[in-house]
Amino acid sequence: MNPSITEQRAHHQLTFSVLAAGAATFGLLQSLVSPVLPTIQEALHTSQTNVTWVLTVYLLSASIFTPIMGRLGDMSGKKRMFVIALGALAIGCLLSALATNLLVMIIGRVIQGVGGGVLPLAFGIIRDEFPRDKVAGAVGSVAGLSAAGAGAGIVLAGPIVNAFDYHWLFWIPLILLLLSGLAAQFVVPESPERKAGSINWLTAALLSGWLVALLLAVSEAPSSGWSSARVLVLLAVAVVLVVVWVVAESRAEHPLIDMRMMRIRAVWAANLVALLSGLAFYASFAFLPQLLQTPSAAGYGFGASITESGLMMLPQTVGVFVLGLVAGRMALRFGSKNVVIAGSVIGTVGYLLIAVAHDREWGIYLITLVIGVGVGMAFAAMSNLIVAAVPAHQTGVASGMNANIRTIGGALGASLMASIVTAGASPSGLPEESGYTNGFLMLSGALLLGALAALFIPAVRRDPLTHAEPDVELRHAEAALVPGGTLVGDESE
């Protein structure tokens, strides 16, 4: 083994701390502004429709740049691109904090989307630099910390705005990002793995095109209606572009997303689970606080403030955090596939309980804990599956696409939830309780489908010495990715 690599791996715990800090801060920025959009709307003197672009452009930008940053990391160095991703997040936070109008705020959020590469790059660094028996636990923990950071954003938004003002929703992450970026530059070793080639900008443009069309369609649907001409045209454009994109990627000498890799059963099955679990988890960020903040005079809800509703969702964040930390060990003992299935089923029960039993405050605390436990298990173990399923030089782009699909699922879920919740309104103008009931039943059904989709993930034999999972699955993936290679043994055990 190369002595320099051995020396680098001796510091894997310190490296993990830096990667975890960056991932958690990225997760925090995903949700921190969601509960306070009305405050930002008033401060920037804009409309409710326009202020939603603060969220939408971030999703669009992250969807486009996540796989690109993962590919650049595979080509030119994951540590270098990880620092650049943190830098982009910091610059975006600075612009957003200083924004005095909506345009500057939106530009800042677009730049923040470049930071979507933080997760796939962190997974790739772990895969390259950590001892083999530490990879599963570290990947699961980073994934869990990112999800926990997203949950923490909901909890912390109210106290931050009450104590300071909404600008500090960006100043505080900016400080954390600067510290994480400096630590990454001086502590994280540069990974030895490299992927030859270049960015195929044609396929990158096609990827951007269909993602933009799809997310614009699902963003417009709640206000314009799914049957409106604008939404139907955008969906048609997305379908055409995705077909052209797949054909172009399949024929490209240096594809951005290797279609042969995407055909690996562990990869496409984990991506399907990611779509469905992202649909459920991220959609609840906006609508569960809204349910809790509804005045009790409406016949449901608790009339909670932003801070109070955040505290009621605190158990969810705790559940995601704790299970994210232990999911790696659970995966080594029971198998990542089984942990994903169990987490999806637990999450299904949680959303089902929210749908039918949301009239007791103590019950909300218990139910959000159940949701957090399920999501923490599923997200962390899913990341392990992707890392185990592809060769090292494909880690960044594969995990980037998986994270990207979760983002797309979240956008779809939010749009579907908005359509269901706002389908009817009470005389007071508030949504009917049945809208929330039907919406959370839909999210519960999505996670149940995710559990069923996880059954298609092939079981991976564990190394008898280290109990780590990657070996067999890596050999399968490498065979599938080599022209003329034979993929054998791709059956669930």
TrEMBL record:
Keywords from the named record: Membrane, Transmembrane, Transmembrane helix, Transport
Compartment list: Cell membrane
Positions of transmembrane segments: 12-33, 53-70, 82-100, 138-162, 168-187, 199-219, 231-248, 268-292, 312-332, 339-358, 364-387, 408-427, 439-460
Main location: membrane
Record keyword Oxidoreductase present: no
One Gene Ontology MF term: transmembrane transporter activity
Protein's UniProt keywords contain Transport: yes
Residue span(s) of domain Major facilitator superfamily (MFS) profile: 15-462
Lipid bilayer topology: Multi-pass membrane protein
One term under GO cellular component: plasma membrane
Protein name: MFS transporter
